[in-house]
Specification:
Number of strands: 13
CATH architecture of the largest domain: 3-Layer(aba) Sandwich
CATH class of the largest domain: Alpha Beta
Bound molecules: adenosine-5'-triphosphate, magnesium ion
CATH topology of the largest domain: Rossmann fold
CATH superfamily of the largest domain: P-loop containing nucleotide triphosphate hydrolases
Distance between the termini: 36 Å
Structural class: alpha/beta
């Protein structure tokens, strides 16, 4: 089985600016992969390389086993750009029809209505883009990216304009896609959202992957907190494995123990630590 996305030693320079310094990254079928990093880190450059919109200076990018930018690769992926603008005069249904033609999809009206339903725009099929809120346009953009049932979805900050209900809708959509085996590469600055939905995360800073793993791997243990008769005591450097010993020692010393909590650093802490000084 081929990977949904395989990026190997990817380098990209724009004139004197090096946006990517040799990035390796693999996304499996059905995997939700989050790409985090500060502004200018190279996230969009990486996503655009996978779409074939940016030509690598070095290294290789393959989508479902085909070179990025090839017809076979393009047929396997859907893309929502971070700063997209759809024509204001275009109605939602017309826009999807136009993109079906561009993508060579034969899904017809049933694909369009299923996609509008999927993004919560079933009642807005006849609405013009110019009369839609920013969040509605972003959801329409997601529907557009799903045309032709791609195996890999490349989403560059797909929830930046969404309210909390819209974000939850997109999270549920991403989970349904995972069940169908669709792989997703998601750029986001919303760490809590990435933590909730992504199987794996890479943190990219100044064109390099500086940390990668599951959100759980990245947010490591951050101490043990024990509630005793004498008040709450924090053992800042202790790990989960040390909790039973700490409790035994406290009880042995005659303290009453009412509760124990293993503290974890958040993904935000891990992120700030990883990008510090880059
Ligand atoms: N077309 C371009 N021409 C020249 N430089 C570019 C171009 N596109 C991006 N860059 C530069 O490449 C670097 C990476 O930009 P990129 O857009 O990939 O960052 P990003 O991680 O997506 O940032 P953001 O979080 O702000 O979207 C930046 O220094 C940017 O200025
Ligand atoms: Mg970007």
């Amino acid at each position: 089985m081929s990977l949904a996305l395989s990026v190997s030693a990817l380098r990209k320079t724009y004139g004197s600016v090096t946006a990517l310094h040799g990035v390796d990254l693999e996304v499996d079928e059905g995997e939700l992969f989050g790409l985090l990093g500060p502004n200018g880190a190279g996230k969009s450059t990486l996503v655009k390389s996978a779409c074939g919109l940016v030509r690598p200076t070095g290294g290789t990018v393959e989508v479902a086993g085909a070179p990025a930018g090839s017809e076979r690769a393009n047929r396997s992926m859907g893309y929502l750009a971070e700063l997209f603008r759809f024509p204001e005069w275009c109605r939602a249904d017309e826009l999807l029809e136009l993109h079906q033609r561009l993508a060579g999809s034969r899904g017809g009206a049933s694909e369009r209505s299923a996609l509008l339903e999927e993004v919560g725009l079933a009642d807005a099929a006849g609405r013009r883009v110019g009369a839609m809120s920013k969040g509605m346009q972003q959801r329409l953009g997601l529907a557009q990216a799903l045309i032709g049932s791609p195996r890999l979805l490349l989403l560059d900050e797909p929830t930046s304009a969404l309210d909390p209900a819209g974000r939850r809708l997109v999270r549920a959509l991403l989970e349904r896609l995972r069940e169908r085996g669709v792989a997703v590469l998601l750029n986001s600055h919303l760490l809590s959202e990435v933590e909730l939905v992504c199987d794996r995360v890479a943190i990219i800073a100044a064109g390099r992957v500086v940390a990668a793993g599951s959100p759980d791997d990245l947010s490591h243990a951050g101490g043990v907190e024990v509630e005793t008769g004498a008040g709450v005591r924090v053992f800042a450097r202790a790990s989960r494995d040390e909790a039973p010993r700490i409790v035994a020692e406290l009880v042995g010393a005659g303290e009453a123990v009412y509760g124990v909590r293993v503290l974890r650093s958040s993904l935000e802490d891990a992120y700030l630590e990883a990008v510090e000084g880059t």
